[in-house]
Design brief:
The complex is a heterodimer. Chain A is an alpha+beta fold. Helices cover about 25% and strands about 20% of the residues of chain A. In chain A, helix 9 runs antiparallel to helix 10 (about 295-305) and helix 10 (about 295-305) crosses helix 11 (about 315-330). By secondary structure, chain B is an alpha+beta fold. The interface of A and B includes residues 132, 135, 243, 246 and 314 of A.
Chain lengths: ~325, ~375
């Protein structure tokens, strides 16, 4: 780990100032970074994947670790709320069931006690080439995505190229399904970014980053609006190892059932299969007006994975994710399938 | 090998247990196979590999294994009994967590008629006298004969010093049992008897004895798993392992080694695998996030069974032996559950799902 300077600001403005005033980095991954739980950042620093010269400690700022009602049935979640807090919050469990499930699915109790919501959204990819210090891949300023033709059983089947990472966050697909947005504060002021526009594909955004945050920007709040489907939301995550694992594939689903149990609203977002949480609007549209049964689920699962382009070693992710789509929708819709 | 035997048995429509008994000459395996089959209720297994309704399919498999476990002449052991009754056994070995401390104390305690708590062991320092390096499951069979030899010698040396207090009995006639030293009608407590020792106490040096150890063990494992054929996930349900090893030095530590062997083979069979990049020549999963060791949520029910029909009164190492039979048992259980024969460990969901796809294509 490279030596770094530690700054503990007491306000968001001071934190932004500390990020802005840091010496200009040689490389984007040498830039000053904010730190909260540090559960991902420290691992990247130990392997020299990031080499910040300055860490700005967000834990010294009061008030960022609360979950409060927005007055309209929605939630305002502070970026420093821990995954355990989110998992155990009675309002989240009752009204945003899928969000509590997503939080609970992450890592281990020890990591959930320290890891934060903001950190979970901003964590770096788990791609083993990205995590290997010696492999200077596309995402680290190199010229090649080693996963494209290498060991790619865990990599992207949707939205890949030129990098084939998958987004590692479990909260991101669920928050996106619930229509959430994040408040971002930086040197140029405050902006509100819908999560749908927060994450960036390697083919569209900065290859060295996974989202739209600039070096001097912080997430200051996550807003989850009230919705009819939030209470009927679920997060189904497939891990190779239940004790602790990232998603091989995951599905965030939420549905509203109207008269005759037909679907009136649906949200379907895939995790672990694309460089960003992957919403599938065509599959959502195909659910509207339907009664959930095994034929409908089968057909929707097919549509959801319709555009999948597997690499050499990850074709199994297609039937796996289709299974999760069927099971998640069945659960969200209260079906025993 | 165990998968191949299994495959042959299925090919000719024979029960894999019967197939093994028909072809394994060593009858020890026959009794072990019967015992484990009874324990796991082998008759419940899937009649047709991959048969049954619904996505969750259960299956059972078995496997057998052998190993060496013999010792060699490298351990020098000192046992010292003090005038205060203290007993110290010293040897420059180490405990890898396999129970070395426990049996080093226990052998001396048994010989002197004391409790394990009455003996103190000193290990983990090469100044204490030569010992063998731990490897190849050789520690128990190398060390315990030397400990036993030292314990016998110190008992006889003690008896010689204590004989005048017991009517000048012959040393070999004095009994050491239940914390007492006895001859004829006379009995002394251990402390009273030790008071007769010289100020420096009595020390004896033990040497390895070939006749107290041997090599060659037998073990079988039966495993039950549940395969989700829509996700490829394998959930271990139950593992039963029957293992012999000559004289069990300590039943609890031997059962623990059986459990440990099953856990290690479970990891090797279902999760652990070194992933190398052929072009970079580097391991891609060098840490415990990506090199997946099983955790507490992956553990099935374990039934470790010591084969008490083994009447050999010798010590044989069993550490590595316990890992061997279960790998085949798990792979064969996966086949019995879902009809996919995975020939490369670990058996991960990608291999199951792609295997099922291949089965459907060829059907």
């Amino acid at each position: 780990m490279k030596a770094f300077e530690w700054i503990s600001p007491t306000s968001i403005n001071d934190a932004v100032a500390a990020l802005t005033s840091a010496p200009a980095p040689d490389d984007v991954d040498d830039a000053a970074r904010p730190i909260a739980g540090g559960q991902d950042l420290l691992t990247t620093m130990k392997d020299y994947i990031t080499r910040p010269t300055r860490l700005v400690n967000l834990k010294s700022i009061r008030g960022l670790d609360r979950i409060v009602a927005d007055g309209k049935g929605g939630l305002r979640i502070g970026p420093l709320v821990t995954l355990t807090q989110l998992d155990e919050d009675p309002v989240v469990r009752r009204n945003f069931a899928g969000l509590a499930e997503a939080a609970h699915s992450i890592a281990t109790p020890q990591i959930r006690n320290l890891g934060t919501v903001g950190g979970n959204l901003c964590q770096r990819p788990r791609c083993w080439y990205f995590r290997l210090e010696e492999a200077v891949c596309l995402k680290k300023g190199g010229s090649e995505c080693f996963a494209a033709t290498g060991e790619n059983k865990y990599h992207a089947i949707l939205g890949g190229g030129p990098s084939y990472i998958v987004h590692p966050s479990d909260l991101a697909p669920m928050l996106l399904a619930l229509g959430s947005s994040v408040s971002v504060v930086g040197a140029e002021g405050k902006r509100i970014v819908p999560l749908e526009k927060f994450f960036t594909l390697p083919s569209e955004g900065n290859l060295r980053r996974e989202n739209v945050l600039k070096n001097d920007e912080l997430i200051t709040e996550i807003h989850v609006p009230a919705s009819k489907f939030a209470a009927h939301s679920t997060y189904l995550k497939f891990k190779e190892r239940d004790s602790m694992d990232f998603a091989i594939a995951a599905v965030a689903a939420a549905v509203t059932l109207g008269a005759n149990k037909t679907v009136t609203e649906a949200r379907l977002v895939l995790g672990g299969v694309a460089p960003i949480p992957w919403r599938v609007p065509r599959a959502e549209a195909a659910l509207i007006g339907k009664t959930l049964n095994s034929e409908v689920l089968q057909s929707v699962a097919g549509i959801a994975l319709g555009g999948a382009k597997p690499l050499e070693k990850n074709a199994y992710k297609i039937p796996l994710t289709q299974t999760l789509v069927r099971r998640a929708l069945a659960k969200a819709g209260g079906l025993n399938a | 090998m165990e998968s191949l035997l299994d495959e042959l048995a299925y090919k000719i429509g024979m029960d894999p247990v019967a197939f093994r008994k028909r072809n394994m000459r060593d009858e020890v395996y026959h009794r072990q196979l019967d015992r484990a089959a009874r324990e796991i209720n082998w008759e419940r297994r899937n009649a047709n590999a991959g048969g049954g309704a619904g996505p969750l399919k259960r299956g059972m498999g078995c496997g057998a294994g052998t190993w060496g476990g013999g010792g060699n002449d490298q351990c020098k052991v000192d046992v010292t009994v003090g005038r205060d009754g203290s007993v110290l056994v010293a040897v420059g070995t180490q405990d890898l967590g396999t129970g070395t401390r426990t049996y080093t104390r226990a052998i001396v305690a048994e010989e002197l008629g004391l409790q394990i708590k009455d003996v103190v062991e000193q290990i983990g320092n090469s100044k204490l006298g030569g010992a063998n390096p731990s490897g190849g499951s050789t520690t128990a069979a190398s060390l315990s004969p030397s400990v036993k030899d030292a314990a016998i010698k110190v008992r006889l040396a003690l008896a010689e010093k204590m004989a005048p207090l017991l009517g000048n009995a012959k040393p070999e006639e004095i009994a050491f049992a239940g914390g007492n030293v006895t001859f004829g009608g006379k009995s002394l407590s251990w402390k009273q008897a030790c008071a007769a020792l010289p100020a420096a106490g009595v020390t004896a040096h033990g040497q390895w004895r070939q006749d107290l150890q041997s090599r060659g063990v037998h073990g079988v494992c039966f495993a039950e798993v549940e395969v989700d054929v829509e996700t490829g996930k394998v959930r271990p349900i139950k593992m039963v392992q029957v293992q012999d090893g000559g004289l069990p030095l300590n039943r609890l530590t031997m059962e623990s080694q059986l459990n440990g062997g099953m856990i290690q083979s479970l990891g090797m069979a279902l999760w652990e695998g070194r992933v190398m990049d052929a072009d970079l020549g580097m391991q891609l999963n060098p840490g415990f996030i990506d090199y997946k060791l099983p955790g507490s949520l992956e553990m099935p029910e374990f039934v470790p069974i010591i084969d008490d029909d083994d009447k050999r009164e010798v010590v044989i190492g069993i550490a590595e032996a316990c890992i061997i039979p279960s790998l085949g048992a798990l792979a064969n259980a996966v086949y019995n559950a879902c009809g996919v024969r995975v020939r490369e460990l670990p058996i991960t969901p990608d291999k199951i799902l792609m295997g099922l796809k291949g089965e459907r294509r060829s059907a």
